[in-house]
């Protein structure tokens, strides 16, 4: 089989690999679609994974072989699958913090989603795999994992109907979050970015106001839109450290800031007095958990998240290097990039 293998920032090789052998409780999946995630881009551009790594985790595909003990799936089933599984029994799992579980990050698909065939382990089969509705395309099915991640983030912010939500970053995740915020009955959704194409796309997904942070003063615009009150919820969906400082200036009294992007390990100045005086809450959200997938699938099925409208580019597996460069480019009119085998 073929796989797109990371070696360096601009060195992703389309290589021949042996088809994985499965055990009696496992499944062999033929990858049909794998989405390019912001974390895939981060791992490639910043070289934070070792050479000889196969990335990719937003996977949909068709089952081509099942282990003899697998009863809930069969050959030919169209499915989605996600890449991390918690143990459900450790300190963190018992507190509902599944993505902090040691096993969570240790588990993965074999190899990653940017390969023609994937061995799906027994714990993945049990906890992160699900059948796609007959009318749902593989492309839409590949959105289950990122929508689940966004749902996990929304679990942390206690969004109330009528709230004003400010999303910093109009990329693929930001546009999913716009649609979810509207679904959860946010009154106003404000989106900032420096990319005019993405800002205009955010309007298509329900944003009420857009702010070009390259040309406009973000705090002033937020206060103008909210009559000086600030946003009830601020979601940081771009991995730019200074956005945290900016978010503290834009969140209203009693509001919540959700960090939904990987930051570098730098010190960031914050208005520390606001935590006490204004009862500001600052929370983080990493990945998803197995309890998010069914809801994500249903929201896609209902059209709450319009996956088809988000796709701007499609590349063959052999073109992953070009796909990463496209997704990372500030010049391309790009939102969601998909890889097909």
Walk me through the structure.
- The termini are close together.
- Helix 8 (196-204) links the parallel strand 9 (188-193) and strand 10.
- The protein folds into two domains: 2-149 and 288-340, Medium-chain alcohol dehydrogenases, catalytic domain (Quinone Oxidoreductase, Chain A, domain 1); 156-284, NAD(P)-binding Rossmann-like Domain (Rossmann fold, 3-Layer(aba) Sandwich), CATH 3.40.50.
- It has helices at 38-45, 91-94, 102-106, 122-127, 138-141, 144-154, 172-183, 196-204, 218-225, 242-250, 273-277, 293-302, 307-310, 320-328, and strands spanning 2-8, 11-16, 27-35, 58-66, 78-81, 117-120, 129-131, 164-168, 188-193, 209-212, 231-236, 251-259, 281-284, 311-316, 336-340.
- The longest helix is centred in the middle third of the chain and has 12 residues, at 172-183.
- It is globular and about 60 Å long.
- The relative contact order is 0.16.
- It is built from 14 helices and 15 strands.
- The protein has 341 residues and is α/β, with parallel strands linked by helices.
- The strands form three sheets. Strands 3, 4, 5, 6, 7, 14 and 15 form a seven-stranded mixed β-sheet that branches. Strands 10-9-8-11-12-13 form a six-stranded parallel β-sheet, sandwiched between helices. A two-stranded antiparallel ribbon has the order 1-2.
């Amino acid at each position: 089989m073929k796989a797109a293998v990371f070696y360096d920032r601009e060195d992703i090789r389309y290589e021949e690999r042996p088809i994985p052998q499965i055990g009696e409780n496992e499944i062999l999946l033929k990858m049909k679609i794998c989405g390019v995630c912001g974390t895939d881009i981060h791992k490639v551009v910043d070289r934070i994974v070792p050479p000889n790594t196969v990335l990719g985790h937003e996977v949909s595909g068709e089952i081509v072989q099942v282990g003899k003990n697998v009863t809930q799936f069969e050959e030919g089933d169209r499915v989605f699958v996600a890449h991390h599984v918690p143990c459900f029994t450790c300190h963190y799992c018992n507190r509902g913090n599944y993505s902090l579980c040691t096993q969570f990050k240790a588990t993965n698909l074999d190899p990653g989603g940017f390969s023609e065939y994937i061995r799906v382990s027994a714990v993945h089969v049990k906890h992160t795999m699900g059948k796609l509705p007959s009318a749902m395309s593989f492309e839409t099915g590949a959105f289950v994992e990122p929508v689940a991640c966004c749902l996990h983030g929304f679990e942390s912010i206690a969004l109330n109907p009528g709230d004003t939500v400010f999303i910093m970053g109009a990329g693929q995740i930001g546009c999913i979050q716009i649609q979810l915020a509207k679904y959860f009955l946010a009154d106003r959704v404000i989106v900032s970015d420096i990319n005019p194409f993405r800002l205009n796309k955010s309007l298509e997904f329900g944003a009420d106001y857009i702010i070009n942070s390259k040309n406009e003063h973000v705090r002033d615009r937020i206060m103008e839109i909210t009559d000086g009150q600030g946003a009830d919820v601020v979601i940081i969906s771009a991995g730019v450290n200074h956005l945290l400082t900016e978010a503290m200036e834009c969140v209203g009294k009693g509001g919540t800031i959700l960090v939904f992007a990987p930051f570098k390990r730098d010190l960031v100045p914050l208005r520390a007095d606001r935590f006490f005086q204004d009862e500001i809450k600052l929370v983080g959200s990493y990945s998803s958990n197995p309890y998010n997938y069914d809801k994500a699938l249903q929201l896609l099925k209902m059209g709450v998240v319009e996956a088809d409208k988000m796709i701007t580019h499609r590349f063959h597996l052999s073109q992953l290097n070009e796909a990463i460069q496209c997704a990372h480019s500030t010049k391309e009119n790009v939102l969601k990039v998909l890889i097909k085998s």
